[in-house]
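In response to reviewer comment 3 from the previous cycle, which asked for concrete evidence that the modeling workflow produces usable outputs, we include below a single protein chain processed end to end. The sequence was submitted unchanged, and the resulting structure tokens are shown without manual editing.
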Amino acid sequence: MKENIESIAISKFKATCLAVLERVRRTGRPILITRLGEPIAEVVPPPPPMRRARWLGSMQKRGRILGDVIAPATDESDWDTLRS
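The workflow returned the following structure tokens.
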């Protein structure tokens, strides 16, 4: 069995399931469920909720500008070709 972990018999867990689950959630400490002294399950608290990233600005400072962003993408003569 794991050290420093509370254990509870399956019969007692069945009778007090909701209270045990609430205690695990509140304290953050896992509880080992046993049958005839042998571990059969472990109740562990859920992981902390993930912070939701703001989608606006979420990519801020993650890119680099390569080249001239103000100059036209194509040569001016290409525009004349496209007009025809």
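The beta strands are 6-9, 31-35, 38-43. We consider this sufficient to address the reviewer's concern, and the full set will be provided in the supplementary archive.
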